[in-house]
Amino acid sequence: MSAAPKVVLGVAGGIAAYKACEVLRGLTESGADVTVVPTEAALRFVGAATWSALSGKPVSTDVWTGADRVPHVRLGQQADLVLVAPATADLIARATHGLADDLLTNILLTARCPVVLAPAMHTEMWEHPATQHNVATLRARGVLVLDPAVGRLTGADTGPGRLPDPAAIVAAAHDVLRRGGLPDDLAGRRVVVSAGGTQEAWDPVRYLGNRSSGRQGVDLARTAISRGAEVILVAGSMDVEPPAGARVVRVVSAEDMRRAMHDEAAAADVIVMAAAVADFRPVAAGDEKIKRGDGPQDVSLPLTQNVDILAELVAKRGGAARPVIVGFAAETGSAGKDVLTLGREKLARKGCDLLVVNDVSGDKVFGQTENEVVILGADGSELPVARTSKAGIADAIWDAVVARQ
Ligand code: CTP
User: Fold this and answer.
1) How far, in Å, is the centroid of ligand 1 from the Cα of 145?
2) What is the CA(402)–ligand 1 centre distance, in A?
3) What's the pLDDT tens digit per position in 323-354?
4) Mutate to test the pocket of ligand 1, among 199, 281, 308 (most ligand atoms within 8 A of CB)
5) What angle do CA 146, 243, 115 make, to 5 degrees?
6) 6-179: which CATH topology?
7) What average pLDDT does the segment 307-333 reach?
8) Which are the contacts of 29, defined by CB distance < 8 A and separation ≥ 6?
9) Any idea where the domains of the chain sit in the sequence?
10) pTM of the full predicted structure?
11) Catalytic residue set
């Protein structure tokens, strides 16, 4: 692929068109060469001047402008990605049926690159059998149709139909560009990913917690969705938003996470414990705030160990082939043992199928967008993954999971 990937950003006529400005910014700031193709209706919400100023390119909606350059064929043929955000019910219907009554739908017919649609519409329109049928048809054709977010719509009503978070749309676009395609090798699989840190209550205002942005878990969830999986994200405290299309189960403590993971494990094909689970919790969480008191004084806090959720999930599986269970090992190297030796020992102790070993000495991982890992297999395999984005690491983990199926 060229240094600057060519992206066509289609914008259909819905109120969420204004949020596509942010999607456009996200794409251009990361170096993509973006051509915006709004529909006529989209221009009623956001004018052509905004799109051309933000993209640095002229904008047209019909196939007649600049017909000598045959834009309806050229733009689709040359694109590395066609992304439509927002995709309205009408645009989805036209795309499904191969209509070509404006520039954007012509491009959708001529494009041979991956196509990603980010829907936004009222709940009734999203849930209508016509739209659901169209979405299923597009997905069966290999189009990535993100699930809309749930929340406040144009008026006072709420429900599924909101445009996914612009940052999540941009991240999904980056996944596709990085892979150069849309594999569906997790289609039909139910994947449960834990992410973020747990918080162990000490008193009503204080807790013990682990450092974790939740980024690696969210990237695992998003990349699994775009590979066709149904994803449940069991989320502790995170600095990042969950991806569009995941069912999110919010948890606070290690005990909450333990319960949620057991509930979800029963029907899972794959489980990934990417969460930073607190190993210890205060023996008793007080109902009253502990007062500072007067003057200096030492405070001691009795702790007790939390259950090892990963090891428990492995034990629960017993001899069954499913679910495939993946753990993470955050290591610094200690007692004369290097990170990989400690990882091997941990893999044997936990009994999981794959262990993603992470060197967390210094500030190499926490809160960073890049990472470098080794994926150890229970079969003795060892797969180093060179420094790359956490989304790239996530895809390498899914490759390793798929290779085991
Ligand atoms: N884990 C878990 N339950 C816990 C602690 C950890 O399920 N109570 C999981 C983590 O999500 C991770 C793996 O176990 O997938 C390894 O976590 P890590 O903190 O590296 O290992 P620990 O088991 O805590 O061992 P140690 O701290 O002694 O290295």
Assistant:
1) 35
2) 24
3) 999 999 988 877 788 999 999 999 999 999 99
4) 308
5) 30
6) Rossmann fold (3.40.50)
7) 94
8) none
9) 6-179, 190-403
10) 0.91
11) 210
